[in-house]
Design brief:
The complex is a heterodimer of chains A (about 110) and B (about 110). With about 110 residues, chain A is mainly β. Chain A has strands at about 5, 10-15, 20-25, 30-35, 45-50, 55, 65-70, 75-80, 90-95, 105, 110-114. The termini of chain B are far apart. Classes of the chains: A mainly beta (about 110), B mainly beta (about 110).
Chain lengths: ~110, ~110
């Protein structure tokens, strides 16, 4: 596609439910990033993939958060047993390694945990 | 850990004014710095990217500068328009693969 897409755009979950958020990066982009953006804050890094390899997951806030990119394209961020503090916008970005390494962002998924 | 600060947090200007947004970072060992705009409820749109070896980048009415040694970047917007109203974020990439964002400057351009 022309840009990074994410689905769903909005997700409401009851506390304790599991959720899965999807990211489709720009075709051919090797690098993929997940960020969490709380209201009124800048995005905070969660995890980074290069192709299918998860090279950095230091930003994942707990072991309830899990990300995968099994075929090196689409990525899924899964949150188990959601808590109210997980409510945020989850942003995905992709880039092509090279001199610029410019990041291109998707529209985000707004997660609300009740 | 890299800390990124943006000042001011909010700015309101009349249409036509030139303005400067500031971004500072604590660790000068960066790979690049990128400026974004974010409209309410939307993702981030890339405006300008400056590599660590560069001093500035320009795109239309936007000019971004980078002083790596002092840990500062500025985004200059010339002849502001109401359509420029958005939140502006700067992000610093360290020499690994982590990006650190500031909390943004919310800009309102009054017609």
């Amino acid at each position: 596609g022309a840009g990074v897409s994410q689905s769903p755009r909005y997700k409401v979950a009851k506390r304790g439910q599991d959720v899965a958020l999807r990211c489709d990066p720009i075709s051919g982009h090797v690098s993929l990033f997940w960020y969490q953006q709380a209201l009124g804050q800048g995005p905070e890094f969660l995890t980074y993939f290069q192709n299918e390899a998860q090279l950095d997951k230091s930003g994942l806030p707990s072991d309830r958060f899990f990300a995968e990119r099994p075929e090196g394209s689409v990525s899924t961020l899964k949150i188990q047993r959601t808590q109210q503090e997980d409510s945020a916008v989850y942003l995905c970005a992709s880039s092509f390694p090279g001199l610029a390494n410019e990041q291109f962002f998707g529209p985000g998924t707004r997660l609300t945990v009740l | 850990k890299q800390e990124v600060t943006q000042i001011p947090a909010a700015l309101s200007v009349p249409e036509g004014e030139n303005l400067v947004l500031n971004c500072s970072f604590t660790d000068s060992a960066i790979y690049n710095l990128q400026w974004f705009r974010q409209d309410p409820g939307k993702g981030l749109t890339s405006l300008l990217l400056i590599q660590s070896s560069q001093r500035e980048q320009t795109s239309g009415r936007l000019n971004a500068s980078l002083d790596k040694s002092s840990g500062r970047s500025t985004l200059y917007i010339a002849a502001s328009q109401p359509g420029d109203s958005a939140t502006y974020l700067c992000a610093v990439r360290d020499t690994g693969n982590q990006f650190y964002f500031g909390t943004g400057t919310s800009l309102t351009v009054i017609p």
